[in-house]
Amino acid sequence: MKSLSPQYTPASEIGHLLRQKGYGVLSVEDVAQWVGTSTRALQSLASEWENMPPDHYLKDGGRYRRRRHSSFVFESGLLTQVPHRAHWQPLDYNALHGGMERWFEPMLESTTSQPAFLELLSTFAQTASAVRGQAEVRWCIEAHQFRIDTTGGIGRPTPEGAHRDGVDFVAVMMVNRTDIKGGETRVFEADGPLGERFTLSEPGSMVLMDDARVIHESTPIQPLAEGGHRDTLVLTCRAHHFQDSPG
Hints:
The protein is of the alpha+beta class. It is 17% helix and 32% strand.
């Protein structure tokens, strides 16, 4: 596995790359082109990561993660926010936090009403349809705001380790990195030996992944100065139905 800076792909090629190798990385300029918005609009979302509530569900005893979560449906060209619901994953996909309903605080209307945010989710679903070759799919999208801080000396973006999410597609957008080292993104073939690692550092840059084909993780972060943190927006897209507790 070779270490590399992000090897960006043009926005016009992201669908092809998802079909070809299961993931691709876009620069902020290409994310803006892909979505049909401006880089300024994308990067202005960063203020929505301030004053987020703590994640009370961390089973490793950590206090390094803040989080909000909301859910949406994209169907027949229309994006709709659905009533607030729990985030749930089976143990098969998340051995650390799977099997329990996690009721995170919802995203704020000031975030979910921003055109750049709404256009991002809609484009994500449209790309999913194009990659799957299915025009009329009900895409269930979960959006997660994460802030990983280093108050305790270390923060873990993926405490569950290398994983899949049990969805169709995953997107991770870098919102901000402030006074940290680490936080390297690692993407591996789910059924093969190949993998790559790179560090998303440019605000607005994004990695998109076919969750059936790749496994991913982000390495821990450490502070370079007091208050060091890493902000990301994670989107998951699943056809037809959300993952919900069978209970």
